[in-house]
Amino acid sequence: MPTGKVIAVILGGGQGTRLFPLTLERSKPAVPFGAKYRLIDIPISNCLNSNLNKIFVLTQYNSESLNRHINETYQFDSFRNGFVSLLAAEQTLERKDWFQGTADAVRQTLRHIRVQRPDYVLILSGDQLYHMDFRKLLKFHIDKQADITISTLPVNAEKAPSFGIMQLDKNSRIVNFKEKPTVGELQNLKSEKTNNLEKPYLASMGIYMFTYKILEELLENSTKTDFGHDIIPESIINQNVYGYVFDDYWDDIGSIKSYYDSNISLTDILPPFTLYEEIDHPIYFRRRYLPPAKVRASRIDESIIAAGAIIEGATIVKSLIGIRSIIKKDTTIINSVVLGNDYYKLFNDEPLFIGEGCHLERTIIDKNVRIGNHVVIRNHKDDKDIKEDLYWIREGITVIKKGAVIPSHTVI
């Protein structure tokens, strides 16, 4: 097994505008996923499953719900000596700016990382889906005596222009890098290391293993703000930078459509990303001690129903129904993601629910939404983007905003 003290740093991202309106009131890592998880649970679970239990999460936008989730979910006893700690952008005597990019975020929090005296620093994104054993990445990094190791994913020519593409030599050292190459530039960026004729290009996954001394040197001797655009391309020339090929499922939740598709795919019999590998890849989450879901006189097919849901006389097809959801009779929900509720009833408020006789299709319903009776939300796959007070339509998907009240007989 590889040896050396590793600190994991998970980047919370910027404003997350491509995920609006889901990120209007929360940071990207705090966005709910899979009916009961949050996106941040994926990278943290990968760390814990790899025996990495000292984790910093860096964020600066709408961090309250993420902070609360981390504090209530990831509590270590005194014998494990681990932590999951949220570091928000902060003003100091030396720095008065917010994070200007991924590298700048790590630079500004380097003093907290330094206290842990790590040998290696693993830098991750807070909004990606994958199962990965970081011990294999660390072993590769040590065996190659690398300064930096970048996890890479084989991709085809269609997807390659959306990524930073790396070319590896026979020893896996990165010899060429191009950020979002044009179609004409791709021909000179093929890598034999992929062993995949259909996916001959190696894309950066935004997962970096640094030898700590090198990371500290690179950040303190530079004002560059981004790893992908600045630090990594320059390091390939001056440092020992290697590419670790990860040929398994990986997805970046960068838009409403990718978020929607990733959730809906969980309802497949054999989804590309599974929630059910409890031995090798358990996903940790906040325990809420909710009652089991209750279903009466309903038809449910290819769907996931979370704890605490109450469904009466409804039809639900290829959808995710989140915690504490209440769905009333004669309502049909198709190809939709219902994030659920934070409570059943608060003080003297009416319960939150989806009313009678509704038809909801290709929809994301954010938390704490009340939908009246006979509301219709149609498939808007071919429509242009729309922004309204109670809902947005993005990439053909209707997103009902958090806390919205949709009156009875509304048609969207």
Short description:
This protein has helices at 41-49, 64-73, 102-108, 110-115, 134-143, 212-220, 227-238, 256-265; strands spanning 6-11, 32-33, 37-38, 54-59, 83-88, 120-125, 128-130, 148-155, 164-168, 174-179, 201-211, 241-245, 250-252, 294-296, 299-301, 304-305, 310-312, 315-317, 320-321, 326-327, 332-334, 337-338, 359-361, 363-365, 370-371, 376-377, 386-387, 391-394, 397-400, 405-406. The chain is of the alpha/beta class and 412 residues long.
Q: What would the keywords be for this entry?
A:
nine-stranded mixed sheet, 8 helices
Structure description:
The protein has helices at about 40-50, 65-75, 100-110, 110-115, 135-145, 210-220, 225-240, 255-265, and strands at about 5-10, 30-35, 35-40, 55-60, 85-90, 120-125, 130, 150-155, 165-170, 175-180, 200-210, 240-245, 250, 295, 300, 305, 310, 315, 320, 325, 330-335, 335-340, 360, 365, 370, 375, 385, 390-395, 395-400, 405. The protein is an alpha/beta fold and about 400 residues long. The strands form seven sheets. Strands 1, 4, 5, 6, 8, 9, 10, 11 and 12 form a nine-stranded mixed beta sheet that branches. Strands 16-19-22-24-29-28-27 form a seven-stranded mixed beta sheet. It has a five-stranded parallel beta sheet with strand order 15-18-21-23-26, with no helix packed on it. The longest helix is centred in the middle third of the chain and has 12 residues, at about 225-240.
